[in-house]
Amino acid sequence: MITASVKRLKYYPTIVTAVSVPVSIALAYANIWSMTTAEIVGAIGLTSSMTLSLFSMLTNNLVGFVYCDETQSKVILEHYSRKMLRKLAFSIVQSHTTARWIVPVARMSQYGPHFIEPIVNKEEISRLQETGELSKIAHVPIKAALSNQSSSVFYDPLVSQFTNYVMKHGNRELARGLVERGFENIKRMQLERYHLAESDEERAKIELNPRKLLHQAVENCRPLLQLTPIKRGGVRYQVPIPVTEKRSYFLAMKWLLEAVREKERTVHFPEKMAWEILDAAANQGKVVKRKHELHRQCEANRAYAHYRWS
Questions:
Q1: Are residues 279 and 189 in the same domain?
Q2: Which among 41, 77, 93, 163 could disulfide-bond with 24, CB atoms 3.0 to 4.6 Å apart, if both were Cys?
Q3: What is the pLDDT of residues 150-196, one digit of tens each?
Q4: What per-residue confidence (pLDDT) applies to 167?
Q5: Is 232 exposed, middle or buried (0-12, 13-18, 19+ CB in 10 A)?
Q6: Which pTM does this prediction carry?
Q7: Is 114 contained in some domain?
Q8: Are residues 54 and 84 in the same domain?
Q9: Residue 302: CB partners within 8 Å, gap ≥ 6?
Q10: Handedness of CA 11, 17, 20, 22 (dihedral sign)
Q11: CA gap 86, 80 in Å, rounded
């Protein structure tokens, strides 16, 4: 760790200074070099020793009070990972009892833990009004809604998230325009199929709303399992683990955009996006094959599933 490294490092300039300063003074008296050179050598050694000593004290105070040993004699720094250091700020031990309090790290947020997330969906607000739960949270502080959140009927969280994944270098206007043009292409393709349909039954099966098609495509591309490498006995095994709902949506949209960008560059992005969404909505295409291939690999490695808990 950094504290131990600085503690070891601060002794080297001290030793070098203790040796070099007398030698420099002796050489100055022997007229081999001037007394000014000897003073410069001494000043450099003294400055470096004091700097490293001060830095060692500073890191002791900032990093060293992370863990207190069981004997309660000294405060030591264990080899914790960065993730554990975020969760554990101080470990304070009473001198006469074995009680220990864990003080959590201050969150980098302007809202306290008692603030709740904003509810922008009108359907959710109506449901809370009908069940009477809205009156329970009427006096609870609520976080401010994000700039891209709205209670409009045209607002769709999934479309907004998909637009964020399309966006590059913060150019949201361009990303929104590309997604809207992709929806226009989907609408044109579906209308063409609708007018070419021969019977009313075929027309009833054709979905004309591009936003619903995007929802259907993402649902068809969502993986249920994924592989993670776990090392046991010097060998890394690909262990199947379940995917959380949030990550499954992320992987589905990520794979869709990767499939869009892998297509030929001579075709514009909205057209490629329309093709991929229509294929995925019909449970076809490259992304659905990728999901099935991942599930087959997880099925083949199911013998290693117990390594997840061992």
A1: yes
A2: 41
A3: 888 888 999 999 999 999 999 999 999 999 999 999 999 999 999 99
A4: 96
A5: exposed
A6: 0.61
A7: no
A8: yes
A9: 240
A10: negative
A11: 10
Q: Yes or no: say if 17 and 53 are a contact pair by the CB < 8 Å rule.
A: no
The answer on 291 and 196 residing in a single domain is yes
Domain limits for position 165: 159-307
User: Which of 162, 172, 185 is closest to 272 using CA atoms?
Assistant: 185
What is the rounded distance in angstroms from the CA atom of residue 134 to the CA atom of residue 141?
A: 13
Together in a domain, 172 and 243: yes
Give per-residue pLDDT as tens, 259-279.
999 988 899 999 999 999 999
Strands 225-232 and 235-242, how do they pair? antiparallel
CA dist., res. 297 & res. 170, Å (int) = 36
Contact of 218 with 256, CB cutoff 8 Å: yes
42-62 pLDDT tens trace: 677 667 767 766 666 655 544
Domain tally, the chain: 3
Phi, psi of 91 (to 5 degrees): -125, 105
Per-residue model confidence (pLDDT) at position 57: 61
